[in-house]
Give the backbone structure.
Amino acid sequence: MEKGYTYDFYVKAASYIRERIREVPSVAVVLGTGCAPFAKKITDAVTINYADIPGFPVTTNPDHAGQLVAGYVGSKYIICMNGRFHFYEGYSMEELNIPVHVLHVLGVKTLVLTNAAGSCNPDFHVGDAMLIRDHIKLYGGSPMRGPNVSELGPRFFGVTDLYTEKLREIAKECAKRSRMKVHEGVYMFFPGPQFETASEIRAARILGADAVGMSTVTEALTAAHCGMRLLGLALLTNMATGMTEENVDGSEVNLNAAAVAPAFSALLEDIVSSI
Ligand code: HPA
């Protein structure tokens, strides 16, 4: 893609959203595979199709709804991305900064990223959740490659406390009240859409990964660029390739995600209310 978006590009998209929702949301939640039930918990909901937002990408994944949903969780006004954009769909890394930068311009200060991931830690089991402590992204460029839009953030930015420690501490308290087992670990990005080879998973383990997936990292880096507080929560839908004898396939991921979606959505609701 030709980068070179101006600040005005992001302002146009954010203004379109702001005109249709009640308040500036304090938290944005990106819903990954199996998290859709969470969107149903939102009251006084307003939905906006991505296709109607000026400049916003459009999801190509049939399992992702492609809508923003704004409304209340308890007394907190939030906005959800019900459906996200992945590198494997054909977007450039650079295009993948758009949604989070738009949410930042809208005034959102805290971002919660959820995803489905494969476990490469033998102690982390299918149906467990994992708070992301840090990530590894060795593949591909940065979502901030190209001309820097200085109104959004600095050219060079640190990622020391990328996944905000304070938010993880709060999430750990919520985990104690949850039906789910919640771990903490390192998420490693793979571009997909193929699942990983057994050798790639062996390499990921040696490098320090606990879970692998095809999303989240571009959004996390964009959040760091524009100074948002960030929490990442992975739902472990399968053991990664080679961790068991079984082949990893997409229908297994979706089935396992659906099975724990109610518990995961309840945990997410508690976290969103508490942060
Ligand atoms: N690998 C990559 N992405 C995934 C996986 C996996 O095993 N499971 C769910 N998303």
In short: The first strand starts at residue 27 and ends at 31.
